[in-house]
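User: quick one
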Amino acid sequence: MHSQKIQQLFVRYKILALLIAVALIWVFFHVKTDQAFITPNNLSNLFRQMAITGMLACGMVFIIIAGEIDLSIGSQLGLLGGVVAILTVNMGWGTWPSIGAVLVLGLMIGAFNGFVVTRMRVPSFIVGLGGMLAFRGIVLYVTGSSTIAPAPDDLIALGQGFVPPTLSRWIGGVIFLALIGITVRRRVRRGKLGLQQGSVWVDIARLVAIGVVMAGFIRMLNDANGIPIPVMILLALLAVFTYVSTQTVFGRHVYAVGGNMEATRLSGVNVGRVKLVVFAIMGLMCAFAGIITVARTGSGSPSAGTGGELDAISACFIGGTSMRGGSGTVYGALIGALVMASLDSGMQLMDVDNSWQMIIKGVILVLAVWVDVLSGSNRNG
Amino acid sequence: MSEYLFEMRDIVKEFSGVRALNGISLSVRPGECVGLCGENGAGKSTLMKVLSGVYPHGTWEGEILFDGKPLKAASVRDSEAAGIVIIHQELMLVPQLSVAENIFLGNESTKFGGVMDYDTMYAKAEALLARLKLKDVNVAAPVMNYGGGYQQLFEIAKALAKNARLLILDEPSSSLTSAETDILLSIIEDLKREGVACVYISHKLDEVARVCDTVTVIRDGKHIVTRPMAEMTTHSIITAMVGREIENLFPRVEHAIGEVIFEARHVTCWDVTNPERKRVDDISFQLRKGEILGIAGLVGAGRTELVSAIFGAYPGRSEAELLLEGKPIRVKNPEQAIKAGLSLVPEDRKRQGIVPLLGVGDNITLATLSHYARGGTIDRQAELQTVDTEIKRLRVKTASPELAIVGLSGGNQQKAVLTKMLLPNPKVLILDEPTRGVDVGSKYDIYTLMFELVGRGVSIIMVSSEMPEVLGVSDRVLVVGEGRLRGDFQNVGLTQEQVLAAAISHAAEGPAHAA
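Assistant: Done. Structure below.
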């Protein structure tokens, strides 16, 4: 009886289970590495590592919710990163114009993939597989298979720099106040409409928990030079993507298309267009990730992003996105990315052999989805 | 020794307290063909599932004798081993496998314990096809190279390969052209001469009259009559099939009917897999303002195809000229249809109506989401207000509009889907089987809503397989049969017999008209 209640709690607040999993992983590594894991510097690195997978996961979660898949994103990342390096290093473009051009190019590549999937009706799995090879081939061709360096300093600052500590505190404060405002307004509106209300205490407890986590997060990273810029960009993307998925017409249509494409089509929604936009957004995220990769390493490497699609897809599935489409959350996918990054970082600190790292990550992915299947087995559809 | 090859006695089958079959008996002699007739939902398919072992022995009451011995099939395999083979309405062939591989699927000739013995299989397949007078078939070619008529005969060959002594054919001609049907019927006549017994289930009474020696009619799960075909006429079969009074389940409200508002001309649809065959063949009709137009016909007659072509949702090739309020409208997809002022509530709620994991409210606003949005952002308050009003108005029973719709009962899901398609304020509302799988209370609510809508000047096209519903609700009834318009009746003193006769009537007679 009691265990059933706990199970229900986890099904309802899947996110809670994931956070507990992250905490357990951290504590495990902390103990195993003689207190070297949960330190400001290590966590700062961990979050920075996670930022790139996180950006890809933001786009991928929409793709999977819409009932599709994109295997080409690792190669797209490599290509777009390569282009930003060529523009800034070889062609002497300014950093910001180059970034703008690459973002537009990413959007176009994504839209092209979407066009092939929706208009030419090639299954997205195949389009991704083809793109994985073709885009990687293009990177090798345009870079002449060699690393392009050194990236200009203002670009490197984007990948290696930090947000000033005071600014982070201010941003944190503003976000916290905004969250309080949103919660209060939501309660007032729901009250007006006579809708079901959760208990006040749950809301307050949630706000307090979020506040504590945010304060802890900012304080800890400020102890190590501040919040890395890529992490700040990722957090901003999290906010934008969460807003799009929960508050916009487009977001609702993405869930509807993935949940039942036929019913959505018969409701007058242009399902092809929805999917095309989702692929375009994926391309844009690859551009973000590619730029940050170059900025972090200071160079455009032709092999950048190899295997990135697998990390992003794993992050989505660990984060509770349904394989059949129709359900999933952006923050879930990011916590999934955090799980993957924590495993990477912890095992590197422990000096685990690369072969074992891969085995363990693979097993954990399958286990996580198995647990998800078990907890969702009573659900229809 | 009994004279019958096969006897079913007093079969009773219940589904959670509801009697789907109530004491049905059916007997077949060797070499005899028995026609099994009944309206949609009379219990024919349930009976066949009992017979063929889909419902294992013990899940129903009664007795089945085969060759005079009791048959206690635990599965389809058992009944097939005894010699009972059912051929389903939808063909059950694997299109990519060869003809011979399909005929012997699950029953393959092998050598060395597992290697396919193609030479033997091809020889046997050719012998079987020769028995069916099928020449020019390459048994090594994939099944998908052959049309629906051939495929139906491959199914029969597959049954004969299993040494079928009793062949059950469920609407075997529903996907065949009339020439193909002709071949099928003559083959059944040959098989009868060879001593194979048949149960022939069909709505097409002319086919039943041609091949069957005996006819059994069932209705509402009860046995109505069994007689030699010689003593029956098409008319007496129809009377036996219908034979029930319409109870007053329909809250009919008198309403004014205005001018012609919508017109569909020359609607034609081609089959998705068999491009030779027309599913809807040049149907034209008019609809007046405030009119409820019922579309009746048998399952597979082309009614759903007709309305989905009008709504721009037919998956294959289709053609139609549409006029709304005298002006031609262009409808190539549902988006355009809704913009033009048409709405469709589809037939298959689970597959085409609901998005299961989305909330009830999210489902209701799916077709009109942009109405509640500014700059792409949804105004949740405006959305929830509409949802709230609509849920109360239609009495959708849900604890909260945010609960996933999949948890609701069929009737409440249907009300939600109906609401969704009403929110765009259509001028013409198309309902395809609006009360399928819906409880009596929700049915009443849906009918009430329909009369309220026509009172406000909305025009409704309703496809329905439930004859009492068609007659209880419609102002006018179109009858569709084999893709053609077979009748256009004002619903004044119209009887089920007239409608059914028009639906079954042969194409040559042309559309019927009643005063």
